[in-house]
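Worked problem 6 (solution included).
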Amino acid sequence: MQDLLKKGIEKVAYLPIFCCESVKQPFIQLGFEIKYYSMGEDLQQPKSLPVDLNNKVFLFINYFGFENKCIYSWLQKKKEVQSFFVIEDCVQAAFNSFDHTLSDYIIYSFRKFTPQPDGAALIARSSKFNLELDTHYDNEEFLGKQIFGKVLRASVEDEALYLNLLKDSELLLDVPILPSEISDISKLIMNRIDIVEVKRKRKENWENLFYELDSNDFLKANIKSLFKCLGNNIVPLGFPIIVDEKKRDELLSFLRSRNIYCPVHWRIRSSSIKEDYELSKKIITIPIDQRLGEAEIKYIIQTLINFYEVH
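Solution. The predicted structure is:
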């Protein structure tokens, strides 16, 4: 963001209303005027896109690891007639191979896909971009809570014990912080991870879960898969589903009680953009990470069946 300000841009940024609160924080902290656009009820039908983008900032997200082709197609046409800066959010698509030629900045976060407590990447198209990292920044509290929370998650049944730690650690990122080097513990973890296997396993789990859902008419009557096809260049973050909003939170509790922990991306606040707000009340992300295998996928499916048999 500091690099953009050096370029003399107008402090106006267009963001999707369907995003994490943390995406907005840097813009708010630097005094940007934020304007929102819609990604539609299925994140693939953008609306309220800006008309005038000259010398402004446009941010888009590759949701759940899937390439945002509709926005990219729109940007191609927009770039032909206007000059502006594009930030591409690949936090949920850290291991994918997409066309980034229209983006001025690309942001990745590896800890969404691996057990490391920190670690991200920022790629800039300009050769003049120079990000100085603080090698002395003290993030011990953040790292401590992240690591302890992850250890507890694997060893205790009371989810509150580790969820509070992880939540507290994330709150530490909501204030202005200095860019710093990745921690030694995260470097160690990354060097020991087989990224090829991580990618293969996530894709396999996604395909197996989709097959199980798609071949079960009972579940299909209650659950809708947000995406229908997994491309060769896609490594999914999770398996987002759409359910009845009246049953969503009850389903989340039911799954948690059976040790299936499903995040919600995201609980956005009430908005004048109806489609995105409605989606936020219906969406659940089923885990498909590399720790899971065929038996765990079948357990998830059976647990969903058990819920809907009595609801």
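Discussion: Residues 195-214 form the longest helix (20 residues).
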